[in-house]
Structures are given as C-alpha cells and as structure tokens.
Design goal:
Layout: H1 2-6, H2 10-18, H3 24-42, E1 45-46, H4 50-59, E2 70-74, H5 102-109, E3 113-118, E4 139-140, E5 143-147, H6 153-161, E6 166-171, H7 177-183, E7 186-189, E8 210-215, H8 218-228, H9 246-250, E9 258-261, H10 273-288, E10 292-295, H11 304-327, H12 339-349, H13 353-373, E11 379-383, H14 402-407, H15 412-415, H16 419-425, E12 429-436, E13 442-448, H17 454-467, H18 471-481
Parallel strand pairs: 2-3, 9-10, 9-11
Antiparallel strand pairs: 1-3, 4-5, 6-8, 7-8, 7-12, 11-13, 12-13
Helix pairs in contact: 3-4, 3-6, 6-7, 11-12, 11-13, 13-16
C-alpha cells in the first residue's frame, strides 16, 4: 500500500478509490505515516485534525474527481470551521473560523480528504517559510539546508517529500510558483479572478492574490483547477470565460507560439548560471517542438522596480490592516510578530490614503505595459527565481526595514524578480520543474501568457511535460526519503 501511495499522483489515487482497489482510510493511513516519518526534519505539516478527516470519510465523501485523496491546506486563507489557523503568526495562534470559505467548500466537494494545514510565513509575506509560530524553518526535502520557498512553503515541502500528492497554496507575489521552483513541482497561477476568494475578503492585496495548488503532475493541477474554477458571488474581478476545461486543454496542441526568451531579470540584471541554463535548455526544447523562439527585447519603459515599490506599499498596508483587525483595539505585543511584519506596519503608517491609491494605480498601469509587451510574443519564458533555493536563514523574516527587505540589495526582489510581475498584471503563469542544479537543487522555469490565456498556457505546459517529463526525478527523491531507493 505504501509503495502504491508514494508512486501515484492524486488523479491515480482517486481512480483506485473509485475502482475499490484502496479505501480513503487506507490512503489517509499512508499520509499520516509519512507525516510521522518526515515532518520532524521538514517542519511542513501543522494542526493535524485526523478526527475531522476520519469523520468526513465515515459521513460519505462527495463523488468528486479526487474522492478519497489525502490533502493539506495552507495555514493562511482557505478558511474552514473544522481547521483552526495560525495565519503563520503567533498573534493568530489557533484562531477559529465561523465559516467555510468558498475555496474550501469547492475542494471538499472534489472529494479531497483534508487532514491538516501546512506552514506559511507570517501573513504570507516572504519567499521563505521561517515564521516563529512553527518553532523553526520549513526545510526543503531536496536539501534541508535550503528553503522550500514561500509563502506556500509547507505545501511545497509536503508534496515534494511524498506526504501528499497535491496540496493547497495561494499566490500574491509568487507564493505558489516560488515553492514549486524550490521543490521541483508544478505551480500554476491562473488569471486574476479565475478562482473564488470569498466570502471573508473583498480582494487580496489589491487583486494580486489568488489561490492555487502544488502538485507533482500537471494533470493534478489541471483537475484541481477545474474542481474550483470560477469566481464566487460578488467577486470584484471576472476573468474571460474558459472555452473548455483545464483537463481538456492538456490534450489540445497549443499551436505554433511566438516565444520570448529572457535569462536576465526583466530589468536586465544577470541571474545565476543554473537559471540561465534552465531557460536556454527550455528555449531549445520549445524550438524543437516547432515554436518560434527569440530573445526578449526588454522594453525601456517597463520599469519593474517602480512596480515592486508599489507592490510593497500595497502589501504593507494589507498587513497592517490584518494585524489591527485581529487586535480589535487591543495593544500589540510586538513579540508576537516577526520583524518583517513589524516593519510592514511601520512602513504602512508612513503612507497616506493617496499613497495607497497611487500604488494601486501604479500596479494597474504596469499591467497595461505588460499587456503591451505580449503584443510582440505569445509566451514569455524566464527562470522562476534568479537563483536556486536560498539557504535557510538567508531571507529570514527579521529585517524590520520592510522596503529594504523587499527591494534592497540581497532582498526579496533580487531573489524573486519575476513572479510578482504577473500578480501585478493578473496574467496567468506557471513554474515547471525542468532543471536541477549541479548540486541537485530544483530550478524552475517560468512561463507566462496574456490575460485570460490560461488554456493555451496549460496546453503548452502539457506539451512540455510529454517532451521533458519530470515525474521520475521527483520519484527518486520520494523513494530515497522513504528508504525505497
């Protein structure tokens, strides 16, 4: 049973449940055994509610596409009555929700058996997962001296290690795609508004935040996106309607695409040689697949740096709002927050309402410039990160100068200069596990397309997965961790 569990993606496990080859309880046993064996080294899975999972099985699982598959939700968002949350923070420790989010309801309707949450940086701020509330950093199963990424770092580590085949994440500046790159997984960010965000919030971070998934196989990502697709009632953004499903898109050839290749940052700065190699190898692959591949000619007026300052202002204000909401007039004990969060609040306090609206305008103006860039190409290919996964502690959330933490030398923007671009523009983007460094660390390749082109992006990703499959490389790690190699 364990061998079957570790060698199957979520789609395969659901098919075996449907055929009565295995039971949901047996699969949950395997997942919990994996948690017990691996979580002490990874620190990825928290707030385990086995009783809730067993009760959901006894009550009769919905006949959804992932019926019986063990599942984890991020310890941020995905509000659920049966799953208290820390939101990555000691200030929120064991907070109870009075409602189920639409995202959680749709995941439950898919038949997923949620049994715990996964670690997140405090309030989702940061590309590493090292929040104090968890008593230590979340580590990368490929090499525990390195980060699993953030903010969905716990989900990335849990999936890469084989604890579960897929897990929930969310992405406000790369928080699905960064751990996907760091952990050798698939991480797809849909077009803005594609997935439900309510009812607990009107929008996340000025419309830049959206939910998603960390998976080993592309078909799991496609199936999960189909299961939760569509904005909920009252959503402030509404994306172009899909012509079919994500699963159907996987079987459709994408056609010949104009590919713009960029192995520098979008400001023209160099990236790590491993990232350059990842992009160049992907360019050769795409050319062999019949696409038209050319180097990106960087627009002189793209001005990614100004966008990142605006992004930082919006996130700082959102962070301050969240903290003050939970305090509800009570004084703040600063020891309950990480240094970066204290810095975000201090930075937000220096901003006016006009500053915030100016930042929103700057973000949307940047989105228009990105849309114009895509009149010259169909897909933009870059590294997901500017270098392989950072050592644990390198981007620890201790810097109380929030602007410096984000945009200063050696800060977040230097490390992750690509992903937040597409949260700002709202365009779909995906990180695929197409390269590993000489030292065995995953290096993701990032592909982005115009607003609403989710299906074409999925079709291209499927074409790439067939031509350059990654499942065997992932499986070797899982086998090694399980002592099966």
């Amino acid at each position: 049973m364990k061998d079957l569990y570790l060698r199957s993606d979520a789609t395969e496990l659901a098919a075996r449940v449907a055929r009565l080859d295995v039971t949901p309880d047996e699969l949950l046993d395997c997942a919990l055994e994996q948690v017990a064996a691996l979580n002490p080294d990874l620190n990825a899975v928290v707030m385990i509610r086995e009783d809730v999972a067993r009760a959901s099985i006894r009550a009769g699982l919905p006949e959804g596409p992932f019926r019986g598959v063990p599942f984890l939700i991020k310890d941020l968002g995905a509000e659920a009555v049966d799953f208290p949350t820390n939101n990555g923070s000691a200030l929120w420790r064991n907070s109870q929700h009075s409602y189920d989010s639409e995202m959680f309801l749709r995941m439950r309707a898919a038949g997923l058996v949620t049994f715990a949450r996964t670690t997140s940086p405090e309030l989702g701020v940061g590309p590493v997962t090292e929040a104090q509330v968890y008593g230590g950093p979340t580590r990368n199963p490929w090499n525990t001296d390195h980060t699993s990424g953030g903010s969905s770092g716990g989900s990335g580590a849990a999936v890469a290690a084989g604890i579960v085949p897929a897990a929930h994440g969310s992405d406000g500046g790369g928080s699905v795609r960064i751990p996907a790159s760091s952990c050798g997984l698939v991480g797809f960010k849909p077009t803005r508004g594609r997935l439900p965000e309510g009812p607990g919030a009107g929008e996340g971070w000025g419309g830049m935040a959206i939910d998603g998934f960390l998976t080993r196989s592309l078909r799991d990502t496609a199936g999960l996106l189909d299961a939760v697709d569509g904005p909920d009632l009252g959503a402030p953004y509404f994306p172009p309607t899909l012509q079919g499903t994500f699963i159907q898109a996987m079987s459709r050839p994408p056609g010949q695409l104009r590919v713009a290749l960029c192995n520098t940052t979008l400001s023209g700065e160099p990236t790590d040689p491993e990232c350059v190699a990842a992009v160049e190898n992907t360019g050769k692959l795409l050319q062999d697949l019949g696409h038209l591949v050319e180097p990106l000619h960087l627009p002189v007026d793209l001005d990614v740096e100004s966008m990142m300052v605006a992004w930082t202002q919006i996130v700082a204000c959102g962070t301050a709002l969240s903290v003050r909401h939970v305090l509800n007039g009570r004084p703040l004990d600063p020891t309950l927050l990480d240094g970066v969060t204290r810095g975000a609040i201090a930075y937000a306090d220096r901003l006016s309402g006009s500053d915030y609206l100016g930042a929103l305008n700057a973000i949307h103006a940047f989105g228009r410039r990105m849309a114009h860039l895509f009149t010259t190409c169909d897909v933009l290919v870059t590294p997901t990160l500017a270098r392989p996964p950072a050592p644990v502690g390198q981007l620890a959330p201790t810097n109380e100068d929030f602007l410096d933490y984000r945009t200063g030398p050696g800060g977040v923007f230097d490390y992750s200069p690509f992903t937040a671009v597409f949260n700002a523009s709202g365009q779909p983007a995906v990180s695929l596990p197409l390269h590993w460094s000489a030292t065995g660390l995953p290096v993701g390749v990032h592909l982005a397309m115009p607003f609403g082109a989710d299906e074409t992006l999925m079709a291209l990703a499927a074409q790439i997965e067939i031509a350059a499959p990654w499942f065997a490389r992932q499986q070797r790690l899982i086998d090694r961790l399980a002592g099966l190699a």
